[in-house]
Amino acid sequence: MKKFSVLLIELLFVFSMCALPLMAAGNEELSDIKASDDMPVEADPSGIDEPGMPNVPDYLEYIGVVNLWVGYSTLSMNSVNAFIDDINDDADTLFDMETSNMDKAYVLGLDLGLLVFKGFPLSIGARVEYVGGFQASIKGTNSFLGLLPDVTRTLDALLVPIMAGATYNLNIKGMPIDLAADAYIGYALAKATLTQDWTTDETANLSGGGFAMDFGIKANYRVSKPLSIGLHIGYRIANIEQMTADEEANNVFGLDKGEVLKNVYDSDSVIAFDFTGFTFGINANMKY
Fold first, then answer.
1. What is the CATH number of the domain that holds 273?
2. How many angstroms separate the Cα of 9 from the Cα of each of 2, 13, 20, 149, 268?
3. Helix (H, G, I), strand (E, B), or coil: what is residue 7?
4. Residue 268: closest CA among 280, 278, 259, 258
5. Which of 2, 13, 35, 99 makes a 20 to 30 Å CA pair with 255?
6. In angstroms, what CA-CA distances link 192 with 56, 76, 136, 202, 257?
7. How many domains does the chain have?
8. In degrees rounded to 5, what are phi and psi of residue 59?
């Protein structure tokens, strides 16, 4: 009986020495599996999974943005076009008239912004635009026995707004699409040139300035994380209430230096250059 007890104790000791390492290894594997199951899986908020790139929202990964855009714009220019029509009506008895009004323009724009609030997709910065009006003209072919030479008058005008404002950018989760809305306010410089080609030739250079404001929305496709391209729709408010002569132009247009351009056919009313209108274009957006 004593020998049997000693043998039993020896067998239990051998079994424990073999079983304990196996149990410890099993517990480690279960701990690893549990830990991996508890770890959260992060989704890429940009909608574009790039190998080796951390899943970080754009507004945390970059500090600023550059936006370049080009497009077409409508123009109000009611006062200018009324002046052109009055000239046309006055000369219609002597000439066969052909006129084109100023009601559209091409636009170039550049935005420079900084993401100043970390963790929030709002950038603030500056905008510079160039708005070039399509030339307005009056061309008259002499219809009075062919005794008078043909006459041509042209008007060119441009606007350069310099503004400050903000852009809010929204990433569409799970899609490579960005939506943005912006608002800018500032001051605009305007230039215009009147010319006449007839028996007496003359050129009048004019300048002015005034308040300007832009509102817009964009929808862009993300080519890569920093670069996106898309469409831009906006509305600009920029009515230059008066334009003055840069130098004397007295022979045809009756302007002294610094004199305000007026419509002599409408009780000398001041001619406003209203660049207010809608803008449609394409843009490229680069984060840095």
1. 2.40.160.20
2. 11, 6, 17, 132, 123
3. helix
4. 259
5. 99
6. 49, 16, 11, 14, 14
7. 1
8. -75, -5
Contacts of 93 (CB under 8 A, 6+ apart): none
Residue 120 forms part of a structural domain: yes
pLDDT 10s per residue in the chain (288 long)?
Answer: 444 344 434 444 444 444 444 444 444 443 444 444 444 444 444 444 444 444 445 555 788 899 999 999 999 999 999 999 888 877 766 778 788 999 999 999 999 999 877 667 899 999 999 999 999 998 888 766 667 788 888 999 999 999 999 999 888 888 999 999 999 999 999 999 999 888 778 899 999 999 999 999 999 999 998 899 999 999 999 999 999 999 998 877 889 999 999 998 888 899 999 999 999 999 999 988
Tell me, yes or no, if the pTM score tops 0.85: no
Q: Please report whether residue 43 resides in a domain.
A: no
Residue keyed to tokens 């004397």:
248
Q: How far apart are the first and last CA of the chain?
A: 87
Write out the two tokens for 75.
Answer: 């123009």
Is residue 14, in this structure, part of any structural domain at all?
Answer: no
Q: Whole-angstrom Cα distance, residue 229 to residue 158?
A: 27
At residue 185, what is the residue type?
A: I
